[in-house]
């Protein structure tokens, strides 16, 4: 007489029991793999959906009318005297301005994104302390945004 199909004869650990209702190790492992696969697909789908949503939002820094060449010219005229042509400040000033190139700034743009850009935009527009002058009277909003993109290229 055969046992019911859902019952299996176990060897080893369950030696004293004739029949066992518990699933075998391979069945447990298969179920675990299936659960992990479902969780992975769920997380991947959410990541893709969230990434697509954020990439469609428009940044005020994405559509600039000022070209890169004009931004370079603005940098040389307005900023290079203190911050240097390549973003490294000149040594001759009594108060040394911020260094605008390097790993820290790149990580700020990478992880801070538009918040970082807006902070630099406000600093150029409004100035900072006694050392950084305000350029709101001299430069348009587009030109300031182009300078922020120029700083991001360092």
From TrEMBL:
Chain ranges of the Cytochrome c domain: 66-154
Among InterPro entries, the record links this protein to: Cyt_c-like_dom, Cyt_c-like_dom_sf
**Gene3D superfamilies (UniProt xref):** Cytochrome c-like domain
UniProt keyword Cell division, yes or no: no
Q: Where are the transmembrane segments?
A: 34-51
Out of the domains of life, which is the source?
Answer: Bacteria
Q: Which GO terms describe its molecular function?
A: electron transfer activity; heme binding; metal ion binding
Which keywords label this protein? Heme, Iron, Membrane, Metal-binding, Transmembrane, Transmembrane helix
Q: What is this protein called?
A: Cytochrome c
Q: Which organism is it from?
A: Leptospira barantonii
